[in-house]
Specification:
seven-stranded parallel beta sheet
Length: 248
């Protein structure tokens, strides 16, 4: 069973964006492994999920701190943070993208990563350590038309994870990043303008061939996140790409 090295042993985790998509898959996997999970999101998760829920905007430090205090009182100090909260990119080139839309994507996807990481790490260091996993995107590794704000924010998340890994290592806190490629989630299908997974695959594969011949699932990304977050005790500062080989 997954366990954090150098941190609390009662397996308490916070998952942002846990109401759907990758965050929901991570929450389900952690619960199956015996973790007690608190979900932070701006919408309610499905009713069948056995996790405590907190309505939180990850851009707001005061709201995040309040929710973290509630988690500590109810479950204990989190030993794992999985930050997957994000918003879909606004399609359009730089000339047609509104500055406010660009700002919103960067605030949610990058600033939110920093706010959550800081809140979690400040508590973990008092209990001997823990683990942070920030969810970025393969879009943060290569240029794609129409994703200026999203790609810039996700590239920033990758570098943020590396800097935090260096700064937090003396406190026994590991920090890693997972960068999914085109993943079968509601947000992905919406951003691709289709409800059909096969059509999304055809479009993605036409832009850059996917060696495995299919899109990855949220559950497969969750496996990678839980591995880095809870099992990979000697790994920190790493960015793991989960994209079916598309990036190569």
């Amino acid at each position: 069973m997954a366990e954090i090295e150098g941190g609390p042993r009662d397996r308490v985790a916070v998952v942002t964006g846990g109401a759907s998509g990758i965050g929901h898959a991570v929450t389900a996997r952690l619960i199956a492994l015996g973790w007690r999970v608190a979900v932070f999101d701006i919408k309610q998760p499905p009713g069948d999920q056995m996790a405590s829920f907190h309505l939180v905007d990850v851009r707001e430090p005061e709201a995040v701190e309040h929710a973290m205090d509630l988690v500590e009182r109810a479950l204990g100090t989190p030993g794992l943070l999985v930050h997957s909260a994000a918003i879909a990119p606004v399609a359009g080139d730089c000339l047609s993208t509104a500055v406010e839309d660009f700002r919103t994507v960067v605030e949610v996807d990058l600033l939110g990563s920093f706010v959550m990481a800081k809140a979690a790490a400040s508590r973990m260091r008092t209990t001997g350590g823990g683990s942070l996993v920030l969810v970025s995107s393969a879009a943060g590794l290569r240029a794609r038309w129409g994703l200026a704000g999203y790609s810039a924010a996700k590239a920033g998340v990758i570098q943020l994870a590396k800097v935090l890994a260096v700064e937090l290592a003396p406190h026994g806190i590991r920090v890693n990043c997972v960068s999914p490629g085109v993943t079968l989630t509601p947000m992905m299908l919406d951003s691709w303008g289709t409800a059909e997974p096969d059509e999304a695959f055809r479009r993605a594969d036409a832009q850059a061939p996917i060696p495995l011949g299919r899109l990855v699932t949220a559950e497969e990304v969750a496996e990678a996140i839980v591995y880095l977050g809870a099992d990979a005790h000697a790994i920190t500062g790493h960015n793991l790409v989960v994209d079916g080989g598309r990036s190569v």
